[in-house]
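Example 3.2
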Amino acid sequence: MIKILKSILAGIALGSIAMTAQVASADDTIKLGFIGSFASDTGRSTLRGAEMAVEELNAAGGVLGGKKIEIVKADTRQDVAEGIKAYEYLAESEEVDFIVSGSIDDVTLGWLPRMVEYKIPTLDTWTSYIGIIDKLVEDYDKHKMYFMNIASDEALASLYVDFGKDILAKQMGWKKVIILQEDTAFGGAINGLVSQLLAPEAGIDVVDTIVYDVATVDFAPLFSKAEASGADFIYVIASVNSQVVASQYVKLQVPMAMTGIAVSAMGQEYWEDTGGAGGGISTLSPVPSVGFELDPISQEFVDKYKAKYGNDRPKYPHFNGFNAYFGVKQAFAAAEKAGGFKPLDPWVGAMLEQDLKLDKDGTPWMRYGFWKPGEKEERTGRTYPHNARFDITKPYDDGAPSMVVLQWGEDGVARVVYPEKYATGKFEVPSWVKK
């Protein structure tokens, strides 16, 4: 439907409109399944982005000849076993046509074999594990129904190494790092990439790695070990309960800077969750992040998100909320072009053609598109089939960077500090750390 396609590509008709009444029969509906954690800010961000997209598509007349979209939800509880059950429920009991995921990496890895079995088109908005993209490289036909519209962790790490080279090494003069890593698939993947790249490309040596359980509540012994290592700074990798390690770092006044990846710091509620003990923490974040200046279309989405959900957390969508909003619209635009989600090949081909470019003041700012099979990324020289089309080479004029680095100031304000094109502030060490 032309009206729907124009809405997606031009970014118009973005609003939060109440869903229409229940339709008469299953033949009149298209089922969208949501899989993610109901209790987490990241899971709710994906769900809400999907809800807003669905409401707008339904209000615009529906899809595929006027059919209304119905959302069916399944809770993963951020647990692998529950995630598998959730995917099975959506596939077997609800017989959904399409799935949008707000799952963490480990959970996605759990349900991925079920996706292959059921052959349901699935969009991942949070998971960034490069190993999943590698599965498409190794056996494309088996995994071709999968799309990841967040830059994979290899791309995230590549740009973070640039931050290490330009800011941590060149500006701060730091040469040694100790890695503080949670025991998850995400943590291991990022550690491996950072360890392999920091020394040769940024001139920063990894002196040691401390791996901790995600249920850890006392980080004092771990910080003491980090201090004794002789490292210049800590690189934290924390996607689960990361507000705990961040707030303890501040409360204990650990006398060395800490940067890396702290997922809780990517959300607007971070300051409140840490009781104001979050100043000085910097983190890699996919875009858009808090502290990130938005293009007009993304800003309109945020304004309508706030009007719809008010103070119910997350009060500001995480990056995956944006991914879900634009990604769901792209998935249904592809279905319009392909005549539905089945057979699979026409939809996959149409999805690969989706490419939304958003400008800010005439400058390329954000992009929602996908790498095609066999298409090589220039810097790494490798392929990323069905991964979000990222730009990891300055001046980032091909859409958007794979990530930014944001830092929470001791004044409670989040600012983007890298890359320079997107910066709204300067990187600083906490006041209690010797410069």
